From TrEMBL:
InterPro entries associated with the record: Aldolase_TIM, PRAI_dom, RibuloseP-bd_barrel, TrpF_fam
Amino-acid biosynthesis found in the keyword field: yes
SUPFAM superfamilies linked to this entry: Ribulose-phoshate binding barrel
EC code(s) of this entry: 5.3.1.24
Pathway: Amino-acid biosynthesis; L-tryptophan biosynthesis; L-tryptophan from chorismate: step 3/5
Keywords, alphabetical: Amino-acid biosynthesis, Aromatic amino acid biosynthesis, Isomerase, Tryptophan biosynthesis
Keyword Amino-acid biosynthesis set for record: yes
Full protein name: N-(5'-phosphoribosyl)anthranilate isomerase
Amino acid sequence: MRVKICGLRSRAEVRAAVTAGASYGGLVFFPRSPRHLPLGDARWIVQAMPDGFTRVALTVNASNENLDRIVETIPLDMLQLHGAETPERVAEIRARYGLPVMKAIGVAEEQDLAVLPDYARVADQILIDARAPKDAALPGGNGVSFDWRLLSGRRWSVPWMLAGGLTPSNVAEAILTTGASQVDVSSGVEIAPGYKDPRLIAAFTAAALAAGGGGPRGSALDGSGVAV
Ligand SMILES: O=C(O)c1ccccc1N[C@@H]1O[C@H](COP(=O)(O)O)[C@@H](O)[C@H]1O
């Protein structure tokens, strides 16, 4: 079981995630988000991330110019693409930066999963998130979940991660229902938008690790996140 804490905005939040046993830390580069990080701050925050803790940059429909700036400024282990990037664009970004790419797919009903194989061909991982509500200002980070039963018994050819409205209280049920071996959380461990609570980070990570049977910290790039 591997846990990603997304939207880390301070070194204290990074320390809380690492201490809790999370494997991934997400930095949001999307100005409309309350979790958006100026690049100067990101450079400082990323220094608090130890070896083995996967450093993920989240972007939304970013241009090459913006991605260039991010990749040139901070050391990264993965790019999370959380917009309407096509499979061709995902492949282009992966080739351009030589970094593993995790593509987010928004799900509200079964047919939303139909695009998943196309992305699994070009991305290193898939992030299955709740589809954002129509009136939402953000494409993710809304604290909204979906019917996890849509995923039970499904398999894909690449590692995948479950997201969307996960909290310390529901993550165990989400894992048991979907069989996820990786989970991602943002608003579910916050006391206000953009402000993580170390106790909620600890509670979430402990609940996920207990439900998933624990397991080593580390990246899922070895393929061990593949659903079985
Ligand atoms: O967290 C954000 O602000 C954000 C902004 C734009 C796109 C995605 C964002 N977060 C991702 O959304 C999911 C679910 O978040 P939540 O736990 O429901 O709040 C997660 O993958 C975040 O990485």
